[in-house]
């Protein structure tokens, strides 16, 4: 699998150039981080709502 990723990156560099590929990889990593943080924030909010509702009983 890592060999496939290296070949894919080499192909992207050959097609688009180094900086465009670098920006694309950083953008992909940024999107993964953003989705992870959003999911974590959603879980925290849902947990707070559930705890608040359980505390009223």
Class inferred from helices and paired strands: mainly alpha
**What gap, in angstroms, lies between the N and C termini?**
52 Å
Number of helices: 2
Shape summary: rod-shaped
The largest β sheet comes out as: none
Notes on the protein architecture:
This protein is mainly alpha-helical. It has two helices and no strands.
Write the layout of secondary structure elements.
Elements: H1 2-16, H2 18-56
Helix pairs in contact: 1-2
Would you summarize the structure shown here?
With 57 residues, this protein is mostly helical. The protein is 95% helix and 0% strand.
Task: List the defining traits of the structure above.
single chain, 57 residues, mainly alpha, 2 helices, 95% helix, 0% strand, rod-shaped
């Amino acid at each position: 699998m890592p060999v496939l990723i290296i070949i894919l990156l080499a192909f992207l560099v050959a097609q688009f150039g180094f900086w465009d590929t670098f920006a694309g990889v950083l953008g992909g990593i940024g999107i993964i981080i953003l989705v992870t943080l959003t999911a974590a924030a959603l879980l925290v909010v849902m947990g707070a709502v559930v705890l608040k509702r359980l505390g009223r009983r």
